Structure formats: structure tokens, C-alpha cells
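Rotation project, supervised by the postdoc (A.L.). Task for the rotation student: set up a whole-complex structure prediction and record inputs and outputs verbatim in this book. Inputs entered:
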Amino acid sequence: MNRKIDRREFVKTSSVGLAGLGLTSHKGFSISTSKTRKAPNILFLFTDQQHIDSISALGCDYVKTPGMDRIAQSGTSFTESYCPSPVCGPCRASVYTGRTPAEVGVIANSHRPVKGIPFMGEWFRDSGYETLYMGKWHVPQYTSSRIPGFNVVFCGPGGPGSFADNSYTFAADAYLRNYRGSKPFLMAINYMQPHDICEWLRINRLRLDELPFPEIEGELPPLPDNFEYPEQEAQLVKDRRVRNENVTGEWDELHWRYYFWAYYRHVEMVDAEVNRVMNALESANLRKNTLVVFSSDHGEGMGHHQMVRKSILYDEAAKVPLIFSLPGQIESNVVNKSDLVTLTDLMPTFCDFAGIDAPPKMRGYSLKKTLTSGHKLKRDFVTSEIETNRGQMIRTRNYKYIAYLNDPNKQLFHVKDDPGETQNVINSKKHRSAFTDHKELHKDWIKSLDIPENLENRWYVS
Amino acid sequence: MDRIPVSTPLTPQRLVEINAWKTLPTLDDWDSEPPYERIYTAYLQHGYVNQERIGGMLWYKRHATDSQGHFKLEVVESRFGIANNEHTLKADMILQEDTLSRPISWELSSEFSVKGEIIDERLRYLESGQLKGDQLKINTKGVIMQRKVGKSLATNWGLFDALARMQGKLQAPIELDLLQDLSLYKPDQTLRLRKKRHQSWFENQDLHCFSLLGAGNLPWEYWLDDQGRVLCAINSFNIWLLDAEAPQRFAAFKEQISRR
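Outputs recorded:
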């Protein structure tokens, strides 16, 4: 939803006579606020590092997720859903602004966002919402009590989610049960699980002589079909595989499968929290007028391409679960397998459901019509970026193109026939025109972005 | 700062090796005859050597058992947030003195504060609950949630007492449903005594290890001495260490954070 208005021009225009137009002002941006609408509450449940295939109702056989299942069964889930960057900070900066990580200036963890781009909390607060935030932030601090526009209820101890997530739920549960409804609320619960798998990997690095819990042997999931990886990969991707403190260097198949088992237990832990929040929402009679959105900031390697963790552009890290539920408006128990969607769609979608204009220069689209009336999304591609933006991904209907700056090892996967991304077809005559098209698409995409002048990134200056 | 991965699963021995357990508890400090108190420091281990940090504190008082075989367990669990905020859970529980210290009734409160001041009344959570037969009933602000549970219901806090009494008696694994923090129901857990995992570490005693595994949880390991005192409980990288100095340690940590 690029409104094609230059930001400076927009600010200049909107700074005149806002009050007379019935608009409120937010740092030079305008927000329309309808007095007649009954705006829904928005409950945004955002996990950390959750693989797209880790929800039992959506087909994962190795996990029990009654909490996520009830959202999926009462709403619409996407299978072609991507994060704007498979790293915490950049993704979150993007999700909470609706702009790309580079546009916000957060191309890696610990980078500060540029000024002048409104954050979701500010936008909704100034539109009459009560805005609440629990949990992790990471833009740039891991946890913070100062998040733009949000009343930060509890930011947590900055440690494992298995310790902290339960506190976020207690806060959310109490708030929902005590809610009296003078304003609609936007509640963002940013759980830290299943990110704890990073800690788990560091304490399970060395070769196992035997399973520490032999009784689970029959429960261990198998290796994925795409456990092997393509020869032609960018050097940064190869480095990523052997980096990470060489976590998997001593592992055998049993150890890999033990890691999968442990990962699903991490997912189940946060699922129990999600389930409890949903119980509270229903107990407080808020379910019918609350848009529930469930997603995660990025995926997890899970042995696909022999990867653990994230920071790569293969689907295991770049794809994320994405589910919307609003009884009576969003069709229940639907799995949308055709529309390409991205987490930059969240900001315009939230605004659309709330009945307010989205901020300018949104990089995503509102999904409201798609969710409420099956409207086919008019979109050709989605993107993601990584490694301080040196890696970029263009995903179209049938292909995925991955390019790293100054690295000749580009990749093109015909994902329709090769969803596991195992055959790089970039040198195939059959796919030559697709390669050319995607290179051009990538070039045009980069040109279209509004990148801060001081961002040190050669994609944008060459 | 060097970041050296811990590399192996955490056990009491490994905690000593990575300097997580710097002060050993003194056995004399801990009486095992009710009424007694226990205090634990919660360490959060990020998987790097020497980089654990304090996350909170758990205190409980186990009262004497009455003529009906019931006893009271008072619990206070504090979790400390980076921004000087603190989450406190308080529970008064009546438990049955049976194998798993089955809960009979309880009251639970949860509140958030900064330097002792409640930050938002709307975040105060109150719950009362009871278990009759296989019916679990939880009342939160007049809204009653009722569910059928497995006959062997345990709580994470009550397990500390149950394990103390179970020492040396458990033979076969026990199937149970867990009511975690009296608010998260997690069925299908299994408690086992891991005989092969004893290790000589503490004052030349063997330590006994119980594990709790099941859906919705990373494995818990409870390490006890011969007198049935739970010296530590490890949930992958969250570690509860029996610690007489926990209150002072917690207060000093909070002071350190508040100066940042």
C-alpha cells in the first residue's frame, strides 16, 4: 500500500489546518478518527523464533498446541507468510512501523530506528486506542520500559522466555479481566519463546553418548526432507552454518532429532501462555470484538539445510506463522495457501480493521478484504533482508531469488516444484528468463525504498 | 566479553564448574521437619560460562500436617524485570500429604510493582481454586473455570514438598497432570527417579535426581540430598538454587539494577 506521496511533501501538506478537517496530528502525520465506528480491540500475540510448521492444527504431528490451534480454528492462517527480516530487531522495527528494516534504519540488532517514522503504538494511541505492551522489544534494547506510544506493562527480566513469558501472561490476563472498555485496546504481547532454543543449543553443543532422557527416543521427530543443502550458496550463508559457536559440529542424527524434540517443547511452553490469554479474553466477554493476530518475528532452522537458529533467507527462517481471528468477520478454519503475505502487512491491516488511515509509505497491504471477503490480494512479490541488509530475498508466486551483496553465488529456487529449496536453478536455461526478471524486480525494489541517507549499506548507494 | 558456551547440560557439578554456584548451601541451615522454610535464588543461565544472572527468588513455608493429613504451603515467588519492575506471586495452598502433595484449595495473587509500589491496579490478578475428586474449579473475579483433571494432580510448588518425602521410595514412574503456578494446566507429565544420574558432589554425598517430563515443558530435574532437601531444580537453563542468602542477594541485585 504505497501511497506514492513523498514524506516531505506529505508532512508539508498535512501540517495545515488539521483540526478543521477533523484530523488529529501525530508528529506531522494525519490520522482520521471516525466518531461513529465501534473499533475492535486488537490482541497481537507475537512469539519469537517460531518455525511456520510448529502448530498442531496446521499439520505438525510432533507438537501439541491447543492455544494456537483455537486461534487457527477460529480464523484464517497463511502458509505463504514471510517476515521482513529473519532477525529479531530488524523484523520488530519493521512490524511496528510497516516499513522495511532498512527504511527504519534497523538493519541489525542494536541499531537505533531513525526519527520521523511513526510507530504502531504512537499511531494507535493518537487514534484513541489504549496501547499496552508486554515482553521483548529489541529496538534497540532487548527489553525496555520505553517503547514509542505504548504503555509498557512488564518488560521482563531479559532472560529466558521460559522464566519471563508467564509474567507477561499474568499481566495480560489481569488486564483483560479488569477491562472496562472506555477505549478500545491494542495489546501487544511479545513472548520470548521459543527463542530459548538458542540457550538450549549452547548447553547441548557437545556430542551425546546417549539421550539424557532415554524414554523420549520413540518421540523424536525425523530429519527433514531437505536436511542436505545446495552446493552453491553465498559465503555468508555457509559461514552461518558453521558459525553459531559451531553448535552442530559434533552432532549425529540422534542429536539433531533430540534438538527437534526440544524445540517443540519450547513451542508448547509458549502455547500454554497463548491458551491462557485466550481463556481470559473469552472469560471477559471480549472475544467477539477483538481481532486476534498470532505470528512470530522469524522462524527457526530446524535442521532444514542443516541450519539451526535464523539469520538466513531459506524458508525455515524467513517464513512465519500468521493467523487472524475475529468471529463473525474473518472466516474460521481457513488456510490461505495462495496469497503471498508479509509482516509489513500487519500495520496497514490493523489500521484498516480499526477504521483509521495507515501511516504513509506502508510497504505492506491491508489484508482486511482478503480476510473478510476472500478478496484475492494483488501482489507480485514479497521481500526479506538479512546480514545488515547484505542479503535480500524476492519471493514471487513460483520462485524465490536470493542475492548477497558482492557475492556471485546467487540462488533461484522454483519453489512451486521445489518447496524445500534444494535445487538452485539459477544456471538452468529453462529458468533463465525468470532469473532475469527477478534480478530486475530486485533492482527496482531497492530503488523504490526510502532509505535514510546515513545508512551504511552499499545496496542503496551503488 | 568472551562468550564461552556452557556446552553440556547443567547438573549441580556443572554449575560449580562454571561458577554459577559460588556459595554452597550449608546443610545445617535447613531443617527437614515441618514447619520449615526454604528459600531459592532463581538464576537464569544464558548458555555462556560465568554469565548467569539473578531472575528472582522463591520462598515457601511448609506448615505441619493436621489430623486430616492436610498441610498449608505458603509461597512467594518474585521475578525481577530489567526496568526495576517486579512481578510477585503469592499463594496460600492447602495440600494433601500424599505422594504428589495434591492441591485441595488455594488462593493466588499476582501483582506488578516498582520499588514496592503497585504500578497498575488493573494488573492485579486474584484467583481461588479447589480440587474435588477429579473436578478442578478456578474462580477468577467471579468467573468460574471448571475442568476434569487426571486423578494425580500436582503443582510445581507442591512438588518440592512431595519430592522431599518421596526420597528413597519412588520405584516406578508416576504419571501426573501439572498445575503450573496454579494457572497453567499441563496434562500428561511423568515423574521419574533417575538412578543412573547420581553423582558424588556435595560433601561427598550422592545426590538423587528426579526428572519431570511432559508436553508443554522442558524437562525439569530436581536434585536432592539424602535428607530429602531439594538443593536445586533445573529447567534447562532456569536454575533454582537453595540459598540461605537469597533475600540479601536479591536485594543487592535489585539495588544494582536500580542504579543503572
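Student's summary: DSSP finds three helices and 17 strands in chain B.
Supervisor addendum: Residues 12-258 of chain B form one domain.
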